[in-house]
Amino acid sequence: MRGMNTIFLVRTQREVWRGVVGITLVCVVAATSAVVLSVWMVTGSLRMALVFMPAAVLIPLAIAPPVSWFAMSIVRLLTQTIERVDAYVRLDTLTGVLTRAVLLDQVREALPRGGCFLMIDADHFKTINDTHGHTVGDEALKRIAEVLRRTAPVDALIGRLGGEEFGIFLPGRREAEAAATADALCRAMRDQGRAVAGHDLAITISLGGAEHQAGDTLEATMRRADIALYHAKRAGRDRIHIAAATETMPALRIRSNFAPA
């Protein structure tokens, strides 16, 4: 969307410049004709009329720069406003990742290429809120989102599904690649979630993943990932569970998060 806004700005600036140049030329012709004609009619001398031609040309040229600057300022202000509104609609205001609605829309667009959906949930998050307060809880959510952004592949779609739950779609990835990414996310969270906002929180996350199957809906894939997440929680948290690609209601293949680094 930011790219679209940039294209809008460039095209609009081009049109503004064309308009300014066109108006300036029209003004030059009109002013020159009016001055020359008026002086000629008053003095009856064409030579005298031509003496005033440079002044007639300079007036529109002097007006054009401030008009151009004002027009460009309006265009830039409009584009900045569009980008702010766009960011507010697209991004979760607390964590900076995609909102649930935008995430799912973008995942649906990417589904024809296949991929894997990961459901991520912060372990014992209620305890963090109850012990340290919601302000620290908000900082914990920001840290989780930051770790997800830093660790996930550059083409991953990352969003907040609600509360302390996040979703990541890995376009074109197979089950083994999703498992490797999930392992990396758990390790990174364990390393970078120890201290947050001056508090020893030791944040960990649990992940459930499922590879999208041709013919399935996004909702079906997310249900499988959610079941996987449930089993990860049940197995002790700070774990990942990846649903086998051939299973609809999977007896999940369990991967421990405590493998040696």
Provide structural commentary.
This protein is an alpha+beta fold and 261 residues long. The chain folds into two domains: 2-90, no CATH class; 100-255, Reverse transcriptase/Diguanylate cyclase domain (Alpha-Beta Plaits, 2-Layer Sandwich). Helix content is 61%, strand content 15%. The protein is built from eight helices and eight strands; from the N terminus they run ααααβααββαβββαββ. The chain has helices spanning 2-43, 46-51, 53-90, 100-110, 125-132, 134-151, 175-192, 218-234; strands at 115-122, 157-162, 165-171, 195-196, 199-200, 205-211, 240-242, 253-255. A six-stranded mixed beta sheet has the order 2-3-1-6-7-8, sandwiched between helices. Strands 4-5 form a two-stranded antiparallel sheet. The longest helix is centred in the N-terminal third of the chain and has 42 residues, at 2-43. The protein is elongated.
